[in-house]
Amino acid sequence: MTGLCAIPLRDMPLVDETTDVAQEICAAIDRAGEVLGDGDVIVLAQKIVSKNEGRLVALAAVNVGEEASRIAQQTAREPAMVQLILNESRELLRTTPAAIIARHHTGHVLANAGIDASNVEGGDAGTVLLWPKDPDASARAIRSKIAAISGARPAIVIADSMGRAWRIGTAGTAIGCAGLTVVEDKRGTGRDLFGRVLQATQIAVADSVAAMAALAMGEGDEGTPVALVRGAERWVSAEDGPGAETGVRPIEQDMFR
């Protein structure tokens, strides 16, 4: 590997349930003058996958229960939004006016269970977007379709911007993955410059690729929800692998509970 680069794919159409996302990605790669290869990684913003899977919800249509009403009163938040967070979560870890920190059904811990109204048509009128039900399955399906169209089998990462404990700001994070090493474990095998065997080093490969691609794609009105990442061939596999869920720290190892 000589270097990593992320190429934002421009002129992608707005996505809805009728969009063939894989076909549009391949068309955007063609327009960019690029040839897709097996060692490439395609990173997609979570929002276009969610929109394609029909995960839009109108807050006005949500039935609010007693628990959601109680939390909403304590946190001065919209009761319907709290109910959706409860619906999408295994548990709530913190409930504050600033954010509700939830453990999503996928195992990821993040603010408001990933529910968001930014870059969502109708967001100002109370329409919000949920995460894909199974982001790893979504990544595998997109990878299969792209392979059928292009003949190449690049890795797929579905990324969302997430906060990090003790750090300000968000970074692109892999919530769905197919064909890419999620965590490279170098404990007991790698060595440092002085020949010492590495004891604790585990590299968050998929998250690092997602973060780099998110910077290239942008977080606002850039309109580039997909990026082509090159230079990560060493971590790309023909097999889909178990997915991004393997990058989630098991609850029994959670040091902040």
Automatic annotation (TrEMBL):
Residues passing through the membrane, by range: none
GO molecular function: coenzyme F420-0:L-glutamate ligase activity
Species annotation: Novosphingobium kalidii
Name listed for the protein in its UniProt record: Coenzyme F420-0:L-glutamate ligase
Pfam families tied to this protein: F420_ligase
Gene that this sequence comes from: cofE
InterPro entries hit by this protein: F420-0_g-glutamyl_ligase, F420-0_gamma-glut_ligase-dom
Enzyme class: ligase
EC number: 6.3.2.31
Keyword terms: GTP-binding, Ligase, Magnesium, Manganese, Metal-binding, Nucleotide-binding, Potassium
Annotated Coenzyme F420:L-glutamate ligase-like domain residues: 12-231
Domain of life: Bacteria
